[in-house]
Amino acid sequence: MKVLITGTAGFILGNFVRKTNYERKDLSIIGVDKLVKSLDNVYVNSNTLRIGDVADEHFINTIFEIEKPDAVIHGAAESFVDHSLKNPNIFIHSNVLGTQVIVNACIKYNVKKLVLLSSDEIYGQLSSEDDALWTEDSPMKPRNPYSASKAASELIVQAAGHSFGLNYCITRSSNNYGPWQTAEKFIPKVIQCIMNDKKIPIYGQGKQIRDWMHVWDNCSAILKVLDNGKSGEIYNISANQEFSNIEIVNMICGIMGKGHSLIDFVAERPGHDFRYGINSSKMRQLGWSPNFKLKHGLTKTVEWYKLNNFMLKTNDKNNNN
């Protein structure tokens, strides 16, 4: 099966390509990415990589015409909430217009299946630790430009299913961590600060709660949805491991044997969501389950960044440009 994947230079799908190259010899992958950040996540290894913008309809149509993919995994997106607060327009360009362009091509070239990667952030926030977990039927209530753009991308795909018969699935994953994640993200940022003896900036008192999942578990879930996901269905993906930000920081400090004195509480981010938590029982009924417990996954992640410190330095330099 020939699978076109957008966003293969990103954290999640860069790991996905690595995983499928070792585990799924039956898949032929065509990667598409704009390559605007570090090249560290680019992993080709016998695959085809096309460099360009998913919102460029001529470029996308040309790729579809040449490659004629059987399936598409659409994950190319702007994803950093802090950046969306500063410049929402680029999120609309990539996440909304880009999705419409991909959907148009899937319809035009009779793609058998589209898998859209979304986020649990489209649900908004849970206001207390006692609130019930979100299910796939919970309403979308995005609270920042990033999550609003992802919610819009979902609606575009769902509309294409109703209007044109597009066979699609949507995944909504919880927070991911693991190797090759850029240093602007929370966990690698904490690791980097400790490694370089710098202050660890924590919004507010670090009480925000997130459900953390190792990226390789998400990759295996995406594969499961590609193979067995039912048309028109949405799947929450999580490891059901909720921890506050300050708990995560203290856990990493414990693993690294230092860093507690570096914790620096800074002013809260505007509209910072308190808690995300999703029910992933539907995904587990599909035959998937996570393999990584958080402590083990964080330990492996810290080890990886210690061995690959160039990755952190490269991305930190790029992010400060």
Overview in brief:
This protein has helices spanning 11-23, 57-67, 81-86, 88-108, 145-164, 186-195, 215-228, 245-256, 281-285, 294-307, 309-319; strands at 2-6, 28-33, 48-51, 71-74, 113-119, 168-173, 175-177, 200-203, 209-214, 233-237, 242-244, 263-266. By secondary structure, the chain is of the alpha/beta class.
Helix content: 40-55%
How many DSSP H or I helices? Answer: 11
CATH class of the largest domain: Alpha Beta
User: Radius of gyration over alpha carbons?
Assistant: 19 Å
Number of domains: 2
Give the overall shape: globular
What is the count of β-strands? Answer: 12
Low-confidence stretches: 314-321
Outline the fold blueprint.
Blueprint: E1 2-6, H1 11-23, E2 28-33, E3 48-51, H2 57-67, E4 71-74, H3 81-86, H4 88-108, E5 113-119, H5 145-164, E6 168-173, E7 175-177, H6 186-195, E8 200-203, E9 209-214, H7 215-228, E10 233-237, E11 242-244, H8 245-256, E12 263-266, H9 281-285, H10 294-307, H11 309-319
Parallel strand pairs: 1-2, 1-4, 2-3, 4-5, 5-6, 6-10, 7-9, 8-12
Antiparallel strand pairs: 9-11
Helix pairs in contact: 1-7, 2-4, 4-5, 6-8, 8-10
Write structural notes for this entry.
The chain is an alpha/beta fold. The chain folds into two domains: 2-176 and 214-237, 3-Layer(aba) Sandwich (Rossmann fold); 181-210 and 241-272 and 292-315, UDP-galactose 4-epimerase, domain 1. Helices cover 43% and strands 18% of the residues. The protein has eleven helices and twelve strands. It has helices at residues 11-23, 57-67, 81-86, 88-108, 145-164, 186-195, 215-228, 245-256, 281-285, 294-307, 309-319, and strands at residues 2-6, 28-33, 48-51, 71-74, 113-119, 168-173, 175-177, 200-203, 209-214, 233-237, 242-244, 263-266. The strands form three sheets. It has a seven-stranded parallel beta sheet with strand order 3-2-1-4-5-6-10, with helices on both faces. α1 links the parallel β1 and β2. The chain starts with a strand and ends with a helix. 45% of the residues are buried. Residues 314-321 have low confidence and may be disordered.
